[in-house]
């Protein structure tokens, strides 16, 4: 690895770890460029030499807290016998974790972070490869996808091979389930509904199961 690349990654980590400390100690609302730079021991101008905008620093820092979720996904998927069951279980795991930490999952999966967001996932896991060292090899490509629709596509594609759904139904299932989750997360984030994380998970999963298991009754794309 070139010295320039090594230095760049080292500097990235200084700022990312500083931002992660602020999130952990003060919360997302307290993050500013100046605070991150001061905590890392540099000035704001130096930070901008390595990051295009604040949202990128927040994204990378948020990823430092995602490992409990990625570890749990593996456990959930092992409970399913078919791809459809695994798809539903994957959503249940996401709901469980995201509804308990809505700001964190919004920062990673929904916040505007500019062009080519998937490349940020690749860059993160290049620097912090230990975060996915125990993750199944066949599922690692999914981790580089920010879009929930793209993340679910591979499982639904396998479900068509198993004869459980038809290929033209993949898009409908993916879009509807993603919209249900996204809507609930936004409601929790904005405190629009007085639901506990468990209640929100139960409600979301009821809709997702109805969508997936009753797809043939839906008229979309038919």
Strand content: under 5%
Biggest β-sheet, characterized?
Answer: none
- For the residues shown, what is the average pLDDT? 90
Structural class: mainly alpha
Organism: Alkalicoccobacillus gibsonii
Domain HTH tetR-type: 9-69
Keywords: DNA-binding, Repressor
DNA-binding region: 32-51
Describe the structure.
The protein is mostly helical and 222 residues long. It folds into two domains: 3-61, Homeodomain-like (Arc Repressor Mutant, subunit A), CATH 1.10.10; 65-217, Tetracycline Repressor, domain 2. It has twelve helices and no strands. The protein has helices at residues 3-26, 33-40, 44-47, 54-63, 67-77, 83-100, 102-109, 117-127, 140-143, 148-161, 170-189, 197-213. Helix 1 (3-26) packs across helix 2, helix 10 (148-161) runs antiparallel to helix 11 (170-189) and helix 11 packs antiparallel against helix 12. The longest helix is centred in the N-terminal third of the chain and has 24 residues, at 3-26. The protein is globular. The mean pLDDT is 90. It comes from Alkalicoccobacillus gibsonii. Residues 9-69 form the HTH tetR-type domain. Residues 32-51 bind DNA. InterPro entries: Homeodomain-like_sf, HTH-type_Tx_Regulator, HTH_TetR. This is TetR/AcrR family transcriptional regulator.
